[in-house]
């Protein structure tokens, strides 16, 4: 057989195998891409729901804690006793108590709560020694930033952490326009047992402008409103819930966005102080804040294309968006690696087919 005939046979076999392998590779590639995206969608939806439920459970724990504490005789008596001692302090109670528990407190800022009792011999300090260990333990165990007891007149008669809001008045004091004051006003206006009032995270001046959220409820004793108990939340428990896991790869992230379109938790790629600073105004966050859930491809707050799963969290007086996302480049790179391998196999198969055709044609020529 002439060289041209051998080449023709080899070429025909090569083209046949190449066409078949190319078709199969294309079909397989489409299947790989589809399966990879489907797998990532399942992962994101699972992570999203897991984190969402943990946030909901944490918020339920906060409200349950408040109801239990408000219903306990210990807290009821503490509030009544502190209110009486506060009023018996004489002169300017705010100035006196802040001097004893903040200014003359030997502990540094951020550790003022370590003072169990001021050495002034007052009934207030005796009560502080009696009750402080229990309330500070609750704050530590539950990871609350602070716990407040407020009398019906709006006086903050006790706090765990002893910041500048301690002993001030929430009706007419310097922090009367804060979210803490708003929560107390809600409680005082409708002091129903078990009713929870709350405000979303804002920067709170007494806490060095750190993000703070407040949850509160009425304390009633024998049918009479004797004040309110309020807890101050910090972002850290929510950050821990939203912390990325290895299963989400190199670019996966979960985070929470508030109605003001600012982060409520750190994102994997955000700055350390991103809470209430970094704006997130995306298709997914807006959809979740409108009460919808789903998954699609969008540009995230960095402008990076991502596969984004989203859902709402309905809280007390607010809605949050919880999102789970992974970069599209990472999703496609996984399938692209497999597709490249299949293309290489196809090229090798086609080349072997050409060589086989050449050899077979050569044998026919010899025979």
Q: What do you see in this structure?
A:
The model has no long low-confidence stretch (mean pLDDT 87). This protein is 49% helix and 20% strand. The longest helix has 69 residues, at 3-71. The protein has two domains: 72-234, PAS domain (Beta-Lactamase); 237-330, Beta-Lactamase (2-Layer Sandwich), CATH 3.30.450. With 367 residues, the chain is α+β, with helices and mostly antiparallel strands. The protein contains eight helices and nine strands.
Brief write-up:
This protein is α+β, with helices and mostly antiparallel strands.
Please state roughly what percent of the residues sit in beta strands, choosing from under 5%, 5-15%, 15-25%, 25-35%, 35-45% or over 45%.
15-25%
Strand order of the largest sheet: 2-1-5-4-3
Note the overall shape: elongated
The largest pleated sheet is described as: 5 strands, antiparallel
Percentage of residues in helical conformation: 40-55%
Number of E strands? 9
**Number of helices, counting only DSSP H or I runs of 4 residues or more:** 8
- What is the top-level CATH class of the largest domain? Alpha Beta
By CATH, the architecture of the largest domain is named 2-Layer Sandwich
> Structural class of the secondary structure composition?
alpha+beta
Order of helices and strands: HHHHEEHEEEHEHEEEH
Mean pLDDT: 87
What is the number of domains? 2
CATH topology tier name of the largest domain: Beta-Lactamase
Gap from first CA to last CA: 9 Å
| The CATH homology group name of the largest domain | PAS domain
| CA-atom Rg in angstroms | 33 Å
């Amino acid at each position: 057989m002439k060289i041209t005939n051998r080449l023709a046979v080899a070429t025909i076999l090569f083209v046949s195998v190449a066409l078949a392998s190319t078709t199969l590779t294309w079909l397989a590639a489409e299947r790989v891409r589809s399966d990879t995206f489907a797998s990532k969608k399942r992962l994101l939806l699972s992570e999203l729901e897991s984190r969402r439920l943990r946030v909901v459970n944490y918020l339920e724990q906060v409200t349950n804690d408040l109801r239990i504490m408000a219903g306990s005789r210990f807290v009821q008596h503490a509030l009544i006793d502190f209110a009486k001692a506060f009023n018996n302090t004489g002169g300017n109670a705010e100035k006196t108590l802040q001097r004893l528990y903040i200014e003359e407190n030997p502990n540094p800022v951020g550790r003022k709560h370590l003072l169990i009792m001021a050495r002034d011999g007052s009934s207030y300090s005796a009560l502080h020694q009696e009750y402080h260990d229990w309330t500070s333990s609750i704050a530590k165990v539950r990871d609350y930033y602070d716990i407040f007891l407020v009398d019906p007149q709006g006086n903050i008669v006790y706090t765990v952490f002893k910041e500048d809001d301690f002993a001030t008045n929430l009706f007419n004091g310097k922090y009367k326009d804060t979210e803490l004051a708003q929560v107390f006003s809600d409680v005082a206006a409708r002091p129903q047992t078990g009713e929870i009032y709350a405000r979303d995270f804002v920067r709170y001046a007494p806490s060095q402008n750190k993000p703070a959220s407040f949850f509160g409820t009425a304390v009633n004793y024998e049918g009479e409103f004797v004040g309110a108990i309020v807890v101050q939340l910090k972002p850290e428990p929510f950050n821990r819930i939203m912390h990325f896991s290895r299963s989400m790869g190199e670019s996966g992230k979960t985070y929470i966005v508030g109605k003001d379109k600012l982060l409520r938790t750190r994102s994997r790629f955000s700055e350390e102080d991103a809470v209430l600073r970094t704006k997130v105004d995306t298709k997914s966050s807006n959809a979740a804040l409108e009460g919808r859930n789903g998954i699609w491809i969008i540009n995230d707050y960095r402008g990076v294309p991502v596969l984004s799963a989203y859902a709402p969290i309905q809280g007390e007086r607010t809605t949050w968006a919880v999102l789970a996302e992974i970069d599209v480049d990472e999703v496609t790179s996984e399938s692209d690696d497999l597709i490249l391998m299949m293309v290489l196999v196809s090229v090798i198969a086609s080349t072997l087919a050409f060589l086989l055709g050449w050899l077979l044609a050569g044998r026919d020529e010899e025979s």
